[in-house]
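Researcher: Next entry in the queue.
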Amino acid sequence: MDEFALVLNAGSSSLKFAVFRVAGGADWPLVARGNIEGIGTAPKMSARDGEGAALATPTFNADVRDAAVALERLMVWLRDRFAGGRLVGVGHRVVHGGPRYSAPAIVTAEVLTELRRLVPFAPLHQPYNLAAIDAVARQRADVPQVACFDTSFHRTLPAVARLLPLPTEVCRGGVERYGFHGLSYEYIASVLPQVAPQIAQGRVIVAHLGSGASLCALRAGRSVETTMAFTALDGLCMGTRPGAIDPGVVLYLFQGLGLTVKEVETVLYKKSGLLGISGISNDMRALLASSDASAALAVDYFVYRVSKEVGALTAVLGGLDALVFTAGIGENSPEIRRRVCAACAWLGIELDERENDGSASCITRRTSRVPAWRIPTNEELMIARHTGRLLASVSGRP
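Model: Structure for this entry, 398 residues:
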């Protein structure tokens, strides 16, 4: 009988999933990947097999009103699609693990209680991550679940980098710099020895550039600094999030404009960043294609913030041995890579235009003192790896 593991990434209106066949070795083969989007409004499911071919999926009605119902429909589809197979585990992306979890954890009642305490730290992500865990527990109580945290990879940050300069009594409650996108950075660090062994043990900055964006400074594959902090609002300009801003601006939103807590939250999470600057779109592709001056300004600011933070992280590392681009924009936008590399030419980055426009992993010239790379990330596979390791630890099998 074939055995499968399910990986889930639940959001407010979407449920991303991947199915892996359980096999020997470190990595399991991907057999299906997909997304249920528009949950609560106009739900739609799409899926592809491990080779990228489209799979037939059911048509959903508006009664798919939340992640629990979406997951119920997904489970039915999986049962039909992989008839005769056995689901052995479910791995979840959970945004915040707080100060306690420096590694993935098998979900227990105690773990869930701790993770619910962290909801105020990630109010727009954590509740939906945990709702998916609850839904799986109701539908398949016999299947073990594993929580994989976006913050865990950054628990190697030195104490001075974790610190927020606030009163001790405030910080005592867990207010510190955590960092996010850790599953993506962990995956990149894990493949560097095979993809680019010459830089794997060096000083590397990884640029996870997508709708959510951040940078991470690696030394010998370990996180020593990152641009996100206590929440996923800090650091780089993102699709709808501002990145680093003067805290006084937030006070002004409350005191000067009289906005409510919910209104400020909406401004910071959903109306700022590329969308806020351009007034057009939060999609980098649309902004690059636009002739509007505000779209151009949004792109310029995005590149400015990335290149500025590359400089800051280079200072933390004491030099730079390589720059790696990953995630949606980093992997798929030659123009953004070109602009960032041009802004960072002072570091010794010499872009090879043909390689940048093509499919090469290394996108700089051979004479470049600091090479730049494009390496696809795979957070789902990272979650599957962790799920497999923890399931093996409790079952005793390899």
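Model: Residues 293-317 form the longest helix (25 residues).
Researcher: Noted, moving on.
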